[in-house]
Amino acid sequence: MDVLSEFFLTSVSGRIEENATAAQAQAGLVAPNPLGPLATLPGTWKGRGFNQIWRPVHGQGAQDRFLELNETLETLEFEAIPGDIPNRGMVQADINLHGVRYLQQIQDAHVLGPNGQLAGIHIEPGIWLSTPPTANPLDPATVARMASIPHGTTLIAQGATLPAINHAPPIATVSITPFGINPPHAPVQFPEVNLATPSQFRTPHVDIPNVTQAMVTNPNSVLSQAIAGQNIISTTTLKISTVPLHPPSSGGGTSNIAFLQGAAGGPNAQSAKVEAIFWIETVKLPNGTTRLQLQYTQTVLLNFNGLSWPHVSVATLVKQ
Fold first, then answer.
1. What is the CATH number of the domain that holds 227?
2. pLDDT digits (tens, 9 = 90+) for 45-55
3. Alpha-carbon dihedral of residues 108, 112, 114, 115, nearest 10 degrees?
4. What is the model's pTM?
5. What is the Cα–Cα distance from 158 to 86, expressed in whole angstroms?
6. Residues 16 and 82 grouped into a single domain
7. Number of domains making up the chain
8. For residues 97 and 141, what is the distance between their CA atoms, to the nearest angstrom?
9. Residues in Cβ contact with 130 at an 8 Å cutoff, skipping those fewer than 6 apart
10. What are phi and psi of 15, to 5 degrees?
């Protein structure tokens, strides 16, 4: 067969296949994307955010804490994992997982590091998984995030996808007020949260020129402000936690290196719990086109000195 004939047959075959696929799509016969709610994630997302963390202070007498605040720049890259990820079953039939790997990199928006570049404050490689419904445990389809943090913590946070909505997400308030580890978990107020109160145990204003009291009181207000006035026509919500949810009936948890766990008098700073909500949003622009936007709020509970200290991170990212 000559090259021209081979090209002609390949082209015809391709058109036939495309037409068949189009016909299947019109008939609703095309199989759904196995990534499910993760299908739009592959690619690069960039944007800005806000980070808050209570850090333990060693050797400062009665002062056991420092309130670090950061305005952030973030890049979040996703890549689909090709093919099925088979999981073998004993008490039920095998299932296939599907997923994306990711790399999250966060920099301080203002503070420079030793190399004269914007200081890096977080890097996190990980995987998101899409899990089909299962009979044992009796769970609907779920998603799970597996993450590794260089401080010495790994986590698995699993949860459900909420039904898609045709408007902006409802964004609840979140508090950074610490509380007792043991019941009754009474909240404990500290003066560092009041920006009008001078403190050497809080990030100086020169490093956070745009941070307001409203942001510290409720970090999620940064998310609400970012989408104010936007025409969001679709929102997919992924809600995950390291604490077993119902559903799912099981799965999830954190693991920390020995230093974080501590020994007598510890822990030093144990990551005890992680909860996060990711909103994948379709924004309609004034010119009629659309763009994809990703917002998230994440709360990590750091345990030290008898209290659970909320570490809240939020960001709004646009797919490039």
1. 2.40.128.20
2. 999 999 999 99
3. 100
4. 0.89
5. 18
6. no
7. 2
8. 11
9. 34, 35, 36, 37, 38, 97, 98, 99, 141, 143
10. -65, -40
